[in-house]
Design a protein that fits this description.
Lipocalin, alpha+beta, 16% helix, two-stranded antiparallel ribbon, 152 residues, 49% strand
């Protein structure tokens, strides 16, 4: 059973890398047009609601890059507003639609960092709303669906 789960994870990992495509230019322009503000909700109890801002730009090679700022993160005895770089992937599902994935490292630690991924399952160009699911990938490679997000 564990071998099956391990190989399923490896297949998902490799297929997401192999089948990832560049972000379509129209979507890229839309993402860079403004700062996207909103929130994410998780199953972390009282700490389950966080305000976020997503900012996008192009790097020196014209590749889409961006950062996420998460407001009110408890670290030790303090509360901070950390920003993390995003790893951006796009997985087309047909000729006009696809999933935008925005991954960032756990901002609460610098050791053995888990990865959070915002997977946009709904993008409405007319209303400028992006929403989707939040996943946690642990250092051990386990993947959990832990919440949702929405930005405008």
């Amino acid at each position: 059973m564990k071998k099956g789960i391990y190989f399923s994870f490896l297949f998902l990992l490799f297929s997401s890398v192999l089948f990832a495509s560049p972000v379509p230019s129209q979507l890229q322009r839309q993402l860079m047009a403004k700062a996207w503000s909103g929130f994410l909700t998780t199953d972390f109890g009282a700490d389950g609601y966080k305000q976020i801002t997503l900012n996008f730009t192009q790097d020196e090679s014209n590749k889409l890059t961006g950062m996420i700022t998460i407001y009110g993160v408890q670290v030790g005895n303090g509360v901070f507003n950390p920003s993390e770089f995003l790893t951006i992937d796009y997985q087309p599902i047909n000729s006009t639609d696809g999933f935008l994935s925005l991954a960032y490292l756990d901002p609460q630690t610098r050791v053995d960092r888990s990865t959070y991924t915002l997977k946009a399952t709904y993008i409405n160009e007319a209303t400028h709303i992006i929403s989707g699911l939040l996943y946690l990938t642990t250092v051990q490679g386990e993947i959990f669906k832990i919440g949702t997000f929405r930005v405008e």
